Amino acid sequence: MKQIIGGETPPANAAVKYLTVGEESAGQRLDNFLVRELKGVPKTHVYRIIRSGEVRLNKGRAGADSRIAVGDVVRIPPVRVSERAEQKLARPAPAREFPVLFEDEHLMAVDKPAGVAVHGGSGVSFGVIEQLRQARPQAKFLELVHRLDRETSGLLLVAKRRSALLALQDQFRERETGKTYLALALGAWPANKKVIDQPLHKYLLADGERRVKVVAKDDPDGMRSVTLVKVAENLQDCSLLEVTIKTGRTHQIRVHLASQGHPIAGDDKYGEFERNKSLQKAGLKRMFLHAWRLQFTHPASGERLALQAELPPELTHFLDHVRAASPQL
Fold it and tell me: What residues form DSSP beta bridges with 239?
Protein backbone atom coordinates (compact mmCIF):
# COMPACT_ATOMS: atom_id res chain seq x y z
CA MET A 1 0.00 0.00 0.00
CA LYS A 2 1.29 3.45 -0.86
CA GLN A 3 0.07 6.59 0.77
CA ILE A 4 0.81 10.17 -0.26
CA ILE A 5 2.07 12.19 2.69
CA GLY A 6 0.97 15.75 3.15
CA GLY A 7 -1.28 16.52 6.08
CA GLU A 8 -2.72 14.25 8.73
CA THR A 9 -2.47 10.46 8.36
CA PRO A 10 -3.92 7.51 10.28
CA PRO A 11 -2.10 6.48 13.47
CA ALA A 12 0.67 3.92 13.36
CA ASN A 13 -0.46 0.29 13.56
CA ALA A 14 1.00 -3.22 13.56
CA ALA A 15 1.51 -3.57 9.80
CA VAL A 16 4.22 -2.67 7.32
CA LYS A 17 3.55 0.66 5.60
CA TYR A 18 5.04 2.09 2.42
CA LEU A 19 4.71 5.86 2.32
CA THR A 20 5.44 7.91 -0.78
CA VAL A 21 6.78 11.35 0.04
CA GLY A 22 4.68 14.22 -1.24
CA GLU A 23 5.70 17.80 -1.98
CA GLU A 24 4.83 19.10 1.48
CA SER A 25 7.28 16.73 3.17
CA ALA A 26 10.17 17.17 0.75
CA GLY A 27 13.41 18.29 2.33
CA GLN A 28 12.50 17.04 5.79
CA ARG A 29 14.82 14.87 7.89
CA LEU A 30 13.82 11.22 7.99
CA ASP A 31 13.54 11.17 11.80
CA ASN A 32 11.27 14.24 11.90
CA PHE A 33 9.14 12.78 9.10
CA LEU A 34 8.67 9.54 11.04
CA VAL A 35 7.92 11.26 14.33
CA ARG A 36 5.10 13.13 12.65
CA GLU A 37 3.75 10.07 10.87
CA LEU A 38 4.03 7.66 13.79
CA LYS A 39 1.89 9.53 16.25
CA GLY A 40 1.92 7.90 19.65
CA VAL A 41 5.21 6.06 19.03
CA PRO A 42 8.02 7.16 21.41
CA LYS A 43 10.91 8.98 19.75
CA THR A 44 13.33 6.45 21.23
CA HIS A 45 11.58 3.69 19.29
CA VAL A 46 11.60 5.77 16.10
CA TYR A 47 15.37 6.13 16.33
CA ARG A 48 15.73 2.43 17.19
CA ILE A 49 13.97 1.24 14.04
CA ILE A 50 16.05 3.65 11.93
CA ARG A 51 19.32 2.41 13.44
CA SER A 52 18.33 -1.23 13.05
CA GLY A 53 17.68 -0.79 9.34
CA GLU A 54 14.00 -1.70 9.63
CA VAL A 55 13.15 1.65 8.13
CA ARG A 56 14.09 1.72 4.46
CA LEU A 57 14.37 4.69 2.14
CA ASN A 58 13.95 3.63 -1.51
CA LYS A 59 14.75 0.04 -0.40
CA GLY A 60 18.04 1.07 1.22
CA ARG A 61 19.17 1.88 4.73
CA ALA A 62 19.20 5.52 5.75
CA GLY A 63 20.28 7.63 8.72
CA ALA A 64 18.08 9.72 10.95
CA ASP A 65 19.45 12.88 9.31
CA SER A 66 18.80 11.71 5.73
CA ARG A 67 16.75 14.22 3.75
CA ILE A 68 13.70 12.91 1.93
CA ALA A 69 12.53 14.07 -1.49
CA VAL A 70 9.32 14.00 -3.51
CA GLY A 71 8.63 10.46 -4.74
CA ASP A 72 10.86 8.74 -2.18
CA VAL A 73 9.31 5.58 -0.74
CA VAL A 74 9.73 5.03 2.99
CA ARG A 75 9.20 1.54 4.40
CA ILE A 76 8.01 1.56 8.00
CA PRO A 77 8.03 -1.73 9.95
CA PRO A 78 5.17 -2.85 12.19
CA VAL A 79 5.01 -0.64 15.26
CA ARG A 80 2.57 -0.44 18.11
CA VAL A 81 1.37 2.53 20.08
CA SER A 82 0.72 2.33 23.79
CA GLU A 83 -2.83 2.01 25.07
CA ARG A 84 -2.59 5.50 26.50
CA ALA A 85 -1.42 6.91 23.16
CA GLU A 86 -4.22 5.08 21.33
CA GLN A 87 -6.75 6.61 23.70
CA LYS A 88 -5.26 10.04 23.04
CA LEU A 89 -5.40 9.50 19.29
CA ALA A 90 -9.00 8.35 19.60
CA ARG A 91 -9.83 11.68 21.23
CA PRO A 92 -8.42 14.26 18.84
CA ALA A 93 -8.04 17.90 19.78
CA PRO A 94 -11.22 19.96 19.44
CA ALA A 95 -11.34 22.00 16.26
CA ARG A 96 -10.68 25.66 16.91
CA GLU A 97 -9.87 28.68 14.81
CA PHE A 98 -7.95 31.62 16.25
CA PRO A 99 -8.12 35.30 15.24
CA VAL A 100 -6.18 35.65 12.00
CA LEU A 101 -3.94 38.70 11.62
CA PHE A 102 -2.52 37.75 8.22
CA GLU A 103 -2.96 34.82 5.85
CA ASP A 104 -2.05 33.76 2.34
CA GLU A 105 -1.18 30.46 0.68
CA HIS A 106 2.25 30.36 2.36
CA LEU A 107 1.65 31.26 5.98
CA MET A 108 -0.74 32.61 8.55
CA ALA A 109 -0.34 34.73 11.67
CA VAL A 110 -2.78 34.16 14.50
CA ASP A 111 -3.43 35.96 17.77
CA LYS A 112 -2.91 33.32 20.46
CA PRO A 113 -4.82 33.81 23.71
CA ALA A 114 -3.09 33.37 27.06
CA GLY A 115 -3.54 30.00 28.72
CA VAL A 116 -3.34 28.01 25.49
CA ALA A 117 -0.21 26.00 24.70
CA VAL A 118 1.16 26.25 21.17
CA HIS A 119 1.38 22.44 20.92
CA GLY A 120 0.66 19.32 22.94
CA GLY A 121 3.22 17.72 25.22
CA SER A 122 4.52 17.95 28.81
CA GLY A 123 1.15 17.19 30.32
CA VAL A 124 -0.79 19.17 27.69
CA SER A 125 -2.98 17.05 25.41
CA PHE A 126 -3.18 19.58 22.60
CA GLY A 127 -2.40 23.15 21.67
CA VAL A 128 -2.94 25.75 18.97
CA ILE A 129 -1.45 23.71 16.13
CA GLU A 130 -3.46 20.53 16.86
CA GLN A 131 -6.68 22.54 17.11
CA LEU A 132 -5.95 24.37 13.86
CA ARG A 133 -5.31 21.08 12.05
CA GLN A 134 -8.65 19.75 13.27
CA ALA A 135 -10.40 22.95 12.20
CA ARG A 136 -8.78 22.79 8.75
CA PRO A 137 -8.78 19.14 7.69
CA GLN A 138 -8.27 20.19 4.08
CA ALA A 139 -4.92 21.83 4.90
CA LYS A 140 -2.07 19.67 3.62
CA PHE A 141 0.52 21.32 5.83
CA LEU A 142 0.35 23.34 9.05
CA GLU A 143 3.43 23.74 11.24
CA LEU A 144 4.52 26.17 13.95
CA VAL A 145 7.29 28.53 12.86
CA HIS A 146 8.21 29.48 16.44
CA ARG A 147 6.89 29.16 20.00
CA LEU A 148 5.21 31.26 22.66
CA ASP A 149 4.90 30.36 26.33
CA ARG A 150 1.50 29.04 27.31
CA GLU A 151 0.94 32.08 29.54
CA THR A 152 1.92 34.56 26.80
CA SER A 153 -0.63 35.95 24.35
CA GLY A 154 -0.09 37.44 20.92
CA LEU A 155 1.42 36.93 17.48
CA LEU A 156 2.16 33.37 16.42
CA LEU A 157 3.30 32.35 12.92
CA VAL A 158 2.13 29.12 11.28
CA ALA A 159 3.58 27.90 7.98
CA LYS A 160 1.26 26.43 5.35
CA ARG A 161 4.08 25.13 3.14
CA ARG A 162 7.34 23.42 4.05
CA SER A 163 9.29 25.91 1.94
CA ALA A 164 7.79 28.75 3.99
CA LEU A 165 8.56 26.95 7.24
CA LEU A 166 12.23 26.47 6.40
CA ALA A 167 12.67 30.03 5.11
CA LEU A 168 11.01 31.59 8.16
CA GLN A 169 12.88 29.40 10.62
CA ASP A 170 16.12 30.46 8.94
CA GLN A 171 15.15 34.09 9.54
CA PHE A 172 14.49 33.42 13.22
CA ARG A 173 17.75 31.49 13.55
CA GLU A 174 19.76 34.23 11.83
CA ARG A 175 18.04 36.93 13.91
CA GLU A 176 16.57 38.58 10.83
CA THR A 177 13.15 38.98 12.45
CA GLY A 178 12.01 41.73 14.78
CA LYS A 179 10.08 40.44 17.81
CA THR A 180 8.72 43.02 20.24
CA TYR A 181 6.61 42.25 23.30
CA LEU A 182 4.65 44.41 25.71
CA ALA A 183 5.40 43.61 29.33
CA LEU A 184 4.26 45.20 32.57
CA ALA A 185 7.23 45.10 34.94
CA LEU A 186 7.01 45.75 38.67
CA GLY A 187 8.68 48.89 39.92
CA ALA A 188 10.15 51.84 38.02
CA TRP A 189 12.37 50.58 35.23
CA PRO A 190 15.56 52.69 34.97
CA ALA A 191 15.42 54.62 31.70
CA ASN A 192 19.14 54.10 31.10
CA LYS A 193 18.83 50.30 31.30
CA LYS A 194 18.26 49.57 27.62
CA VAL A 195 20.21 46.36 26.97
CA ILE A 196 20.33 43.12 28.97
CA ASP A 197 23.10 40.85 27.74
CA GLN A 198 23.20 37.90 30.14
CA PRO A 199 23.63 34.19 29.36
CA LEU A 200 20.77 31.88 30.28
CA HIS A 201 20.81 28.25 31.34
CA LYS A 202 17.88 25.79 31.37
CA TYR A 203 17.52 23.33 34.24
CA LEU A 204 14.89 21.11 35.84
CA LEU A 205 13.38 21.27 39.32
CA ALA A 206 13.10 18.14 41.43
CA ASP A 207 9.57 17.57 40.09
CA GLY A 208 10.80 17.79 36.49
CA GLU A 209 9.46 21.29 35.82
CA ARG A 210 11.61 23.42 33.52
CA ARG A 211 13.25 26.61 34.76
CA VAL A 212 15.78 29.10 33.40
CA LYS A 213 18.37 31.18 35.24
CA VAL A 214 20.99 33.82 34.50
CA VAL A 215 24.54 32.47 34.66
CA ALA A 216 28.02 33.98 34.48
CA LYS A 217 29.45 35.06 31.13
CA ASP A 218 32.05 32.29 31.27
CA ASP A 219 29.60 29.53 32.22
CA PRO A 220 30.01 26.73 29.63
CA ASP A 221 26.30 25.91 29.87
CA GLY A 222 25.19 29.50 29.32
CA MET A 223 23.54 30.54 26.07
CA ARG A 224 24.08 34.15 25.07
CA SER A 225 20.82 36.05 25.40
CA VAL A 226 20.20 39.68 24.43
CA THR A 227 17.09 41.69 25.32
CA LEU A 228 16.41 45.34 24.42
CA VAL A 229 14.13 47.33 26.72
CA LYS A 230 12.30 50.60 26.09
CA VAL A 231 10.00 52.26 28.61
CA ALA A 232 6.66 52.89 26.92
CA GLU A 233 4.90 54.30 29.96
CA ASN A 234 5.72 54.98 33.60
CA LEU A 235 2.82 53.90 35.79
CA GLN A 236 2.04 53.61 39.49
CA ASP A 237 4.81 51.41 40.88
CA CYS A 238 5.22 49.58 37.57
CA SER A 239 6.44 50.17 34.03
CA LEU A 240 4.94 49.29 30.68
CA LEU A 241 7.87 48.11 28.55
CA GLU A 242 8.45 47.46 24.87
CA VAL A 243 10.81 44.49 24.92
CA THR A 244 12.62 43.32 21.80
CA ILE A 245 14.46 40.02 21.90
CA LYS A 246 17.52 39.54 19.73
CA THR A 247 17.78 35.87 20.76
CA GLY A 248 14.86 33.53 21.32
CA ARG A 249 15.71 31.65 24.51
CA THR A 250 13.17 29.86 26.67
CA HIS A 251 11.60 32.30 29.19
CA GLN A 252 14.13 34.91 28.10
CA ILE A 253 12.11 38.06 28.79
CA ARG A 254 10.72 36.74 32.06
CA VAL A 255 14.14 35.80 33.45
CA HIS A 256 15.99 38.84 32.15
CA LEU A 257 13.49 41.31 33.62
CA ALA A 258 13.35 39.44 36.93
CA SER A 259 17.16 39.40 37.09
CA GLN A 260 17.09 43.21 37.09
CA GLY A 261 14.73 43.28 40.06
CA HIS A 262 11.67 44.07 37.92
CA PRO A 263 9.76 40.82 37.29
CA ILE A 264 6.72 40.73 35.04
CA ALA A 265 3.40 41.34 36.79
CA GLY A 266 1.55 38.08 37.28
CA ASP A 267 4.52 35.82 36.47
CA ASP A 268 4.00 32.74 38.65
CA LYS A 269 7.46 31.28 37.92
CA TYR A 270 9.85 34.19 38.24
CA GLY A 271 7.67 36.89 39.78
CA GLU A 272 6.88 38.08 43.29
CA PHE A 273 4.36 35.76 44.90
CA GLU A 274 2.88 38.21 47.41
CA ARG A 275 2.70 41.05 44.89
CA ASN A 276 1.02 38.76 42.38
CA LYS A 277 -1.69 37.96 44.94
CA SER A 278 -2.48 41.65 45.34
CA LEU A 279 -2.44 42.10 41.56
CA GLN A 280 -4.94 39.27 41.20
CA LYS A 281 -7.28 41.03 43.62
CA ALA A 282 -6.83 44.16 41.51
CA GLY A 283 -7.94 42.27 38.40
CA LEU A 284 -4.79 40.80 36.81
CA LYS A 285 -5.59 37.12 36.34
CA ARG A 286 -2.62 36.26 34.10
CA MET A 287 0.97 37.20 33.34
CA PHE A 288 1.24 40.58 31.62
CA LEU A 289 3.35 39.54 28.63
CA HIS A 290 2.09 39.91 25.07
CA ALA A 291 3.78 39.21 21.71
CA TRP A 292 2.92 42.57 20.20
CA ARG A 293 4.81 43.14 16.97
CA LEU A 294 6.65 40.92 14.51
CA GLN A 295 8.68 41.90 11.47
CA PHE A 296 9.93 39.39 8.93
CA THR A 297 10.51 38.92 5.22
CA HIS A 298 7.78 37.07 3.34
CA PRO A 299 9.28 33.73 2.27
CA ALA A 300 7.86 33.92 -1.26
CA SER A 301 7.48 37.58 -2.22
CA GLY A 302 10.50 38.92 -0.35
CA GLU A 303 8.34 41.74 1.02
CA ARG A 304 9.12 42.97 4.51
CA LEU A 305 6.02 42.51 6.67
CA ALA A 306 5.23 44.21 9.97
CA LEU A 307 2.35 42.61 11.88
CA GLN A 308 0.81 43.71 15.16
CA ALA A 309 -1.52 42.07 17.69
CA GLU A 310 -3.26 44.57 19.93
CA LEU A 311 -3.33 44.00 23.67
CA PRO A 312 -6.21 41.67 24.60
CA PRO A 313 -9.13 43.23 26.51
CA GLU A 314 -8.15 41.78 29.90
CA LEU A 315 -4.73 43.47 29.75
CA THR A 316 -6.12 46.72 28.37
CA HIS A 317 -8.68 46.87 31.18
CA PHE A 318 -6.04 46.21 33.80
CA LEU A 319 -3.79 48.92 32.37
CA ASP A 320 -6.68 51.37 32.60
CA HIS A 321 -7.10 50.33 36.23
CA VAL A 322 -3.39 50.86 36.96
CA ARG A 323 -3.44 54.29 35.36
CA ALA A 324 -6.27 55.36 37.64
CA ALA A 325 -4.98 53.62 40.76
CA SER A 326 -3.24 55.04 43.76
CA PRO A 327 0.44 54.31 44.53
CA GLN A 328 -0.77 51.77 47.11
CA LEU A 329 -2.01 49.32 44.39
Answer: 185, 234
